[in-house]
Write a structure and sequence with these properties.
With 995 residues, this protein is mainly α.
């Protein structure tokens, strides 16, 4: 589709060029041959286009019917446009030098091609869009009325339900409040049961002590279950693991220190790169501001936007640096730089270079600040480097001694062993460990000589040797452990059982944390105890699995960790006990408050039970079923009152746990009473209520019918989404009718509320459709205005060119010949035609409330009229050409302004801003930008005029210069008045809160 649209666009462009030649050239000239050639080229292209469109449409018919239909539509429009005939007629007219008639035919072709292009681009005409908007707005107005009617139906249905429930509504509400209050009292009592909490803590401490004792016992049992050889191997493996861990930490520390310095250097380099780019941007902005070039500002804005993105990436790099005062300062400065760059980018986009320069300077200063902070950090790191290496050397020496000690111990253990495999393995491991100790010694020496790179090589070698020794011993450990598998399996089962106990205890401690209430210290201690016990449980599970896998050294490590965690849990419980003791008086006081509130609630429920009993007796004959439900509700409420009384007595005796049981029973009885009251809401409607519901059904039926018609109207717009949402609302209205017909007022109210929701959704969809069509309409109007302005520019250029040509001929020959005079009359008529077009466009823009655009077109219109008058007097000299130049310049600025506004809207849509549609066609910011451009151009013209009039010494201006000066003054006056108008407009908006 795009390819064919491109072909049509090319045809339009050719037609425009041909039109220009038709206006400009003399009959029988060489240019006529150019026109003929190009017109014949269009004829050939139109024939090719028809064939291609037909062939492609046939091919798409099966797989892409919509695209095929669009091509067929365009093809029919192309065939029905009489394009072939028009082209043939133009060729004949040009050959006969009948340019006037040829021009008219050429315009018909342009109009036909534009219509076909609109079809292929799926563009709606302005009238179509206006009609769709009008239909949508009618639907919205109609829907607003439907929404009001539906809201009234919901209210009337609600009134029926309230009438049905008026005798039980207060009782039901009282029960709901009582249930809620009873739950709160129960929760508060749980959190302030001092005796119960103290008892729970004591029990948890005993459970923990028992767990730890069992865990310590299991460690001994696992040792006893191992053969001496496996025990020795396990001890050796454990020692090696500890050494490996420490050596890895030493290497990691050295690496972090080296990498930190390198990262800081890289960050400084990145900032320096940003500084250079920012300096270039500042220079370019200053130049663009001096020249007042919006085109240059656009390219600078993109450069500033890119630099802001690069600054954000540099900011991310800084976040990976080690924490320090310098790094923190650099991070803050980089954030300031990035934000300033982003603001500068926005300023450039808004064409406010003064503000942009301020923010660019802020960015440059922040970058310098960030660089300075990092350089200080790097210098300080260099000063600390010597001490760091000395500390690393000492740590490596201590680790070397520990490694040598382990090597000696493994050697002795191997000599004592009766098992040859163990003896050999221990000997080999001892030798390797001794070798690792030697490598560590070399690393210590290298660090002492400030050669971390050499130390790293020896450290890696030591680590590799220790790992080899460990793996060899672990392999032998697993092999020998198979002999101990049975005994070890029994210990593993016990460990698994102990894990389950620890898990249960962690859950119990978690519950105790929940009961701690407002006591933050107690809650924190309970949570810590639960966390440590849970961690111990996980380590026990791992130990159990490792025993089964023959990894006794790893199992022993996890057992020890589990024992440590249990000890941490016990310490946390001690803190919890102290916190609980410190708040005991407060908890007791809170429990007394609960008892007092419980007594008050008991009294309320006793009174409520009596009211229910009276109501049941009153309606016993009139409504026996309802009376029975009311009576049961009263009995349950009385039962709840009794349970509350028991709870109060238990609290007096400080038996809060029993009181909680009574509170739970009271809450249950209240909930059962509520269920009995809810049965009353299902009673049969009275005759009066039935009559009202039937009336509502008739009103609902009308709404349903109305919605169906509205859905059909929306489908014709076409507006599928709105049509579907209106259809959904119609279905909801139908469901509401069914509930009304079934005399189910409760369900009818819910269905009516659902219908309201669907109606609101339909309104939102229509509002969105209105916004989109309004947006499309504005885009179409802007496009049409731009097209009209482009046409004015092209035709004005031809007039200007002809005027210059005729002026040169007049100067050369002293006067114009008969043909020249005819040419002047011809371009005079053309200028008058352009004046009419400009006036029609001015009126259209004036209707949109645009002051600046209207004034520019008004100025163009008036100047075109003056040009036509001058041409009518056969004046083609300096003054006429000055006016023509001004008109062309203003028209081009209008085209540029229109293009920028359309680009702004497109960008806003891409960024998710919606692109407008509800605001003015030409916003204030676009008007102000054009006004600013007009002022810049006027300044340049004034400077040029001043320069030209001072070239030649003269006492006063000649008539042409005087006329030009008068125009400059008038134009400056208009711009000043427009500026004042805008100032007042902004003030009014600010005073009105931006409305």
């Amino acid at each position: 589709m795009r390819r064919f649209a491109g072909l049509i666009s090319t045809g339009l462009a050719l037609c425009t060029v041909i039109a220009a030649h038709l206006y400009a050239e003399d009959p029988g000239g060489s240019a006529n041959r150019v026109v003929l050639d190009r017109q014949q080229e269009i004829a050939r292209r139109v024939e090719d286009l028809k064939e291609k469109m037909k062939r492609v449409a046939d091919g798409l018919q099966e797989k892409e019917p919509e695209a095929a239909a669009k091509l067929y539509q365009g093809l029919e429009a192309l065939r029905g446009s009489l394009l072939d005939q028009d082209i043939k007629e133009i060729i004949a007219l040009v050959a006969q030098a009948q340019m006037g008639t040829a021009i008219e035919k050429q315009q018909e072709i342009v109009n036909d091609l534009q219509g076909i292009l609109d079809i292929l681009e799926n563009r709606n005409s302005e009238n179509d869009l206006k009609k769709k908007l009008e239909e949508i707005r009618k639907l919205m107005a109609e829907l607003k009325g439907v929404q009001k009617d539906q809201k009234d139906i919901t209210k009337d249905t609600s009134d029926i339900n309230k009438d049905r429930e008026k005798d039980v509504a207060e009782m039901k509400e009282a029960l709901e409040n009582a249930i809620k209050e009873q739950q709160e009292l129960e929760d508060t009592l749980k959190q302030n049961d001092a005796a119960g909490m103290e008892k729970d803590i004591e029990q948890a401490k005993k459970d923990l002590e028992a767990l730890k004792a069992e865990q310590d016992k299991l460690q001994s049992e696992m040792k006893n279950a191992q053969s001496p050889e496996v025990r020795d191997l396990a001890d050796a493996v454990k020692g090696l693991k500890d050494l490996i861990k420490k050596q890895e930490e030493a290497i990691a520390k050295a690496k972090a220190s080296a990498e930190g310095a390198q990262q800081t250097k890289e960050a400084i380099e990145a900032i320096e790169k940003l500084q250079k780019e920012q300096e270039s941007i500042q220079k370019r902005t200053k130049e663009a501001a001096a020249e007042d070039s919006s085109q240059k500002m656009g390219s600078i804005q993109k450069a500033q936007e890119k630099n802001a993105r690069d600054a954000a990436r540099a900011e991310e790099k800084l976040s990976g640096l080690p924490d320090s005062k310098g790094t923190d300062e650099a991070k803050k400065a980089m954030e300031e730089a990035r934000k300033a760059m982003e603001k500068a980018s926005k300023d450039l986009e808004d064409e406010t270079p003064g503000l942009a320069q301020q923010n660019e300077q802020k960015a440059a200063e922040a970058l310098a600040k960030a660089k300075e902070a990092l350089e200080k950090d790097l210098a300080q790191a260099g000063q600390n480097r010597e001490k760091d290496l000395a500390d690393q050397a000492k740590a490596q020496g201590d680790l070397k001694d520990a490694t040598q000690k382990l090597a000696d111990a493994m050697g002795k253990a191997g000599e004592k062993s009766d098992s040859k495999p163990v003896k050999d393995a221990m000997k080999e491991a001892s030798e390797k460990t001794q070798g690792a100790s030697g490598d560590m010694k070399k690393a210590e020496q290298e660090l002492g000589q400030k050669n971390p790179a050499g130390a790293k090589t020896n450290q890696d070698q030591a680590l590799n040797t220790l790992s080899q020794a460990k793996e060899k011993l672990e392999q032998l450990e697993r092999q020998l452990a198979q002999k101990d598998a049975k005994a070890m399996g029994e210990v593993a089962k016990k460990q698994q059982n102990l894990q389950d106990k620890a898990h249960d205890l962690s859950k119990k401690l978690e519950e105790m944390a929940g009961k701690s209430g407002e006591n933050g210290d107690m809650k924190k201690a309970a949570e810590q105890a639960s966390k440590s016990t849970k961690s111990a449980s996980q380590e026990m599970g791992e130990a159990s699995q490792q025993m089964s896998d023959g990894k006794s050294s790893e199992a022993e490590q996890n057992q020890q960790e589990a024992s440590k965690d249990l000890q941490k849990a016990a310490q946390a419980l001690d803190k919890m006990q102290k916190a609980q003791a410190a708040s005991k008086d407060k908890q007791d006081e809170k429990a007394k408050e609960v008892a007092a509130k419980q007594a008050e609630l008991e009294r309320k429920m006793k009174d409520l039970a009596e009211k229910m009993d009276e109501a049941a007796k009153k309606n016993a004959q009139k409504d026996p079923n309802g009376s029975a439900s009311m009576s049961k509700a009263g009995q349950k409420t009385q039962q709840a009152s009794g349970e509350m009384n028991k709870a109060g007595k238990q609290m007096e005796q400080k038996d809060n746990q029993s009181a909680q049981q009574n509170q739970e029973a009271a809450k249950k009885a209240l909930e059962e009473a509520k269920k009995e009251l809810e049965k009353l809401t299902q009673r049969e409607l009275t005759d009066e209520q039935k009559r009202k519901l039937e009336q509502l059904r008739e009103r609902q039926r009308k709404i349903e019918e109305q919605l169906k018609k509205m859905s059909e109207k929306a489908a014709k717009v076409p507006e599928k989404k709105s049509s579907e949402s209106l259809s959904d609302a119609s279905k909801s209205a139908s469901q509401t009718q069914q509930s009304q017909q079934q005399q189910n007022s409760q369900q009818a109210q819910q269905d009516s509320e659902k219908t309201e929701e669907d109606l609101q959704k339909a309104m939102e969809d229509l509002e969105e459709a209105e916004r989109q069509y309004a947006q499309q309409l504005q885009e179409e109007q802007l496009q049409q205005m731009e097209n009209q302005l482009q046409e004015l520019v092209q035709r004005q250029e031809v007039i200007n060119s002809e005027t210059r040509r005729l002026d040169e001929a007049k100067k050369k020959d002293g006067d114009l010949d008969r043909k020249g005079q005819m040419d002047v009359r011809k371009i005079r008529n053309e200028q008058e035609e352009l004046r009419k077009i400009a006036e029609a466009l001015r009126k259209k823009i004036e209707e949109e409330g645009s002051q600046v655009y209207t004034w520019v077109l008004e100025t163009c219109r008036d100047d075109m009229g003056t040009i036509a008058e001058e041409l009518g007097k056969q004046e083609v000299g300096e003054y006429t050409q000055e006016l023509e130049g001004d008109v062309l310049s203003r028209l081009k600025e209008l085209v540029s302004a229109m293009q920028k506004e359309r680009q702004r809207r497109k960008k806003q849509q891409q960024q998710g801003g919606g692109g407008g549609g509800g605001g003015p066609l030409i916003p204030d910011v676009a008007e102000l930008k054009l006004l600013r451009t007009m002022q810049v151009q006027l300044k340049q013209k004034t400077e040029r005029f001043a320069k030209e009039t001072t070239k030649v010494a003269q006492k006063e201006l000649d008539p042409v210069q005087a006329a030009i000066l008068k125009r400059l003054r008038a134009e400056q006056g208009h711009i000043a008045q427009l500026t004042r108008n805008f100032t007042e407009k902004v003030k009014e908006k600010m005073q009105g809160g931006g409305r």
